[in-house]
User: Which sequence fits this backbone?
């Protein structure tokens, strides 16, 4: 990549506030710049995997990208491989003490639509977990898990004891996620709702809308990945009602 193009990218990040961000934001934005340079200079795509509870990179995981190859994540939780044509890359993540998960990596306009993925550690068989990932903007998407007539788990109430311990494991305030909620036990006779609030709009009316957030929700139960939901580019409004749990079944709203 020529020096002028590199300079232009660095300046663009600076205009987004790169010089005035938290350490966590700085690290995330540094990763983004590194992946952009790698793609443009060496024609390599990068995938990054993070622990959905701790937010730390997951090292030494096995990653299979169908029809591309098998890879092992490095200390930064990343794998790299040659650029691929537009389409969906079926990708399988495996590591001891983590739930084996399948992802579809979208390649759009010769670049990866979303290359950061939060993966869930294994759980007790009765536990239920929801993981939210999104892009750099908006900075703050909030996950809400509501048991009808009982509790409302969110950043306002991070722990419940009404029907077994549940908690907001991670509250992310600076883009990308993960924002993670774990409940130890679901009541088969109860109804639950999970929704996302674009909290950034509360302080910045011109913030990036949910439709452009690349928000993705993964639902885990019985120690496996049950469902994946992606926000629609046609979505409008501050709230995204994602799914309900009725009679123990996850149902898209």
Assistant:
């Amino acid at each position: 990549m020529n020096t002028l193009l590199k300079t232009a990218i660095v300046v663009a990040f600076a205009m987004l506030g790169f010089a005035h961000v938290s350490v966590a934001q700085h690290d995330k934005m540094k990763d983004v710049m590194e992946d952009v340079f790698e793609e443009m200079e060496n024609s390599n795509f990068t995938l990054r995997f993070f622990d959905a509870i701790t937010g730390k990179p997951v090292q030494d995981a096995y990653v299979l990208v169908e029809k591309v190859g098998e890879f092992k994540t490095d200390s930064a939780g990343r794998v790299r491989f040659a650029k691929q044509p537009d389409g969906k890359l079926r990708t399988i993540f495996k590591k001891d003490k983590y739930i084996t998960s399948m992802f579809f990596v979208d390649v759009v306009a010769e670049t990866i639509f979303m290359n950061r993925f939060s993966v869930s550690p294994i759980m007790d068989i009765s536990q239920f977990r929801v993981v939210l990932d999104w892009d750099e903007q908006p900075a703050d998407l909030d996950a809400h898990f509501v048991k009808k007539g009982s509790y409302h788990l969110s950043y306002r109430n991070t722990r419940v004891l009404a029907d077994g311990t549940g908690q907001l494991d991670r509250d992310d305030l600076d883009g990308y996620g993960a924002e993670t909620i774990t409940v130890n036990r679901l009541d088969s006779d109860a109804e639950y709702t999970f929704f996302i609030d674009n909290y950034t709009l509360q302080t910045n009316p011109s913030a990036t809308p949910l439709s452009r957030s690349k928000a993705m929700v993964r639902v885990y139960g019985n120690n496996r990945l049950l469902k994946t939901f992606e926000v629609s580019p046609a979505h409008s409004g501050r709230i995204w009602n994602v799914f309900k749990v009725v009679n123990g079944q996850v149902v898209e709203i």
Observations:
- Confidence is low (pLDDT under 50) at residues 1-11, 13-20.
- Residues 23-42 form the longest helix (20 residues).
- DSSP finds three helices and 19 strands in the chain.
- The radius of gyration is 18 Å.
